[in-house]
Amino acid sequence: MLKRDIKQMLLLDDCSGWVIKRKVNSIKDLTLTEKAVFQKIIFFQDKHDKKSRITNLRIALFYGLTSQYIYKIIKSLLEKDYLKINYKDGNREMEINTTIMPQLEIYQYAESLWVDKMIALVKDLSIKEKFILGEIHNKSKEKYFFGSNNYLAKKFGIGEVQISRIITTIKKKDYFTVSIRKKINNRTAKMYTERRIVLSGGNKRQMERNAVENLGEVDDSILR
Q: For the chain, what are the domain ranges?
């Protein structure tokens, strides 16, 4: 294992976690991971020439992925015409194709996605699981989250079946509990089913423990 401070890598970007802004999130033909990587590339655009020179390694460390996987995602963004890549003096320069980016009338109704740094640093969750847990964490009222699988599917552009699997996986890792209740609508007198996702009492402590464990080491495969 290679000793490296991931917390420092996050602080290098002066961030409080992961974010996908609504303009990028409104793009329909990108996966959640592609959106996250694309957002990072945009974030590192030079103010003067609008070129992004961020390396695969830095993106990989930021998201806890491998450099090979980042390479595949950037290749996909290139094939979908969202990026243009040139090499100058042996260095890669990525340029955003602004001509196909969503316009205001499209992205003004989209929502940004945000994952707290404490969740981003957890080791035993995938990037999709972290975004879903982040949404549940952000939207929980009085420790409860009432959003349906359909709501999460539409927000993240993921099928409801996959959302259900992700919820089950996170639940098995004890980040929250799920309860189903039968309730009566006072206006219609009809019975309906309500799902409550409750953040575990030790959830915060568990995330903090996992984050601390993740601060000191990164798998060598990230550097390949």
A: 22-106, 118-221
Spatial separation of the C-alpha atoms in residues 82 and 77, rounded to whole Å: 5
pTM: 0.80
Q: Does domain 118-221 match CATH 1.10.10.10?
A: yes
Rounded to 5 degrees, φ, ψ at 217 are -150, 150
Using the Cα atoms of residue 169, residue 207, residue 110 and residue 31 in order, give the sign of their dihedral: negative
Sequence-ordered list of residues with C-beta below 8 angstroms from that of 44, at least 6 positions apart, any chain: 52, 53, 54
- 118-221 has the same fold as 22-106: yes
Compute the distance between CA of residue 129 and CA of residue 110 in angstroms, rounded to an integer.
21
Instruction: Please provide the CATH number assigned to the domain covering 22-106.
Output: 1.10.10.10
* CA 173 to chain CA centroid, nearest Å: 18
| The total number of residues written for the chain in this structure | 224
Amino acid letter, 199: L
Q: For the chain, 224 residues long, give each residue's pLDDT as a single digit of tens.
A: 334 445 545 544 556 789 999 999 999 899 999 999 999 999 999 989 999 999 999 999 889 899 999 999 999 999 999 999 999 998 999 999 999 888 877 788 788 999 988 888 888 899 999 999 999 988 886 678 888 999 999 999 899 999 999 999 999 998 888 888 877 777 777 777 778 888 875 555 555 555 555 544 444 333 33
48 DSSP 8-state letter: T
Query: Token pair of 150, please?
Result: 């359909």
